[in-house]
Amino acid sequence: MVVTPASATAAPAPPTARVEIDGLCAGYARRPVLHGVTATVPAGAVTALVGPNGSGKSTLLSALAGVLRPTGGTVRQPPDSRPAFVPQRGTAATALPLTVRRTVAMGRWAERGPWRRLTRADHAAVESAMARLGIADLAERQLAELSGGQHRRALIAQALAQGSDLLLLDEPGTGLDADARAGIDALLCDLAADGVTVVQATHDLAAARRADHVLLLRDGRLHAAGPPRTALTADTLTALWLTD
Ligand SMILES: Nc1ncnc2c1ncn2[C@@H]1O[C@H](COP(=O)(O)OP(=O)(O)OP(=O)(O)O)[C@@H](O)[C@H]1O
Asked: Which InterPro entries match (predicted)?
């Protein structure tokens, strides 16, 4: 594995870790995927998970989200950590008669519970999340009537409405046009500047280069880690995509 320092000369203080991953092994029935991954996710920064198809990015996100139990190693997070997770294949039931506003409001359930009335602050969080994702004008539309990109933005807004300090996104730019992708990119930077820790799995190398930190996976193992300038080199990328 290649671990690249931020700078060969300066010695900046190491960033605080929001998540510490130590020797993580995880996978599915009879299919081990992650093999002893050790890495840190810096707090209040954007981390990009990069790697070829099947390298284990989604599996790692699921383990960070707590929806996949490790078979070995540990994922250390602050107690009571409640990450907001947007999986690649959305879980919101499009068959249900749900408006976009109602879908985004479900993001408040973790805090409020599904049966309690939402407070004024909850409603403000929902409106703010829709506005930041550029879907305020779709608030009363049915989820089933949305385009793929609009649906994706609604699910990201739902995660944002949770107000979690850890946002996990599986390929958030998939299905979005260039403007919407740029908007998501800018949003993730803003969130990190506000102290939110963002982890996104992405095939978009340009987006990965704009991240603060990169974890490169290959065959379920950490191949490189560090800031993009040093982790996404021609050598590491060639090793990932052009060799067996
Ligand atoms: N629910 C599942 N049950 C069994 N195997 C799975 C499941 N989900 C993923 N896998 C397998 O685990 C391996 C890693 O998949 P994963 O989705 O984590 O990779 P990825 O890097 O996110 O890929 P992609 O870039 O294609 O999204 C693959 O071999 C995949 O077929």
From this structure: AAA+_ATPase (IPR003593), ABC_transporter-like_ATP-bd (IPR003439), AztA-like (IPR047748), Metal_Ion_Import_ABC (IPR050153), P-loop_NTPase (IPR027417)
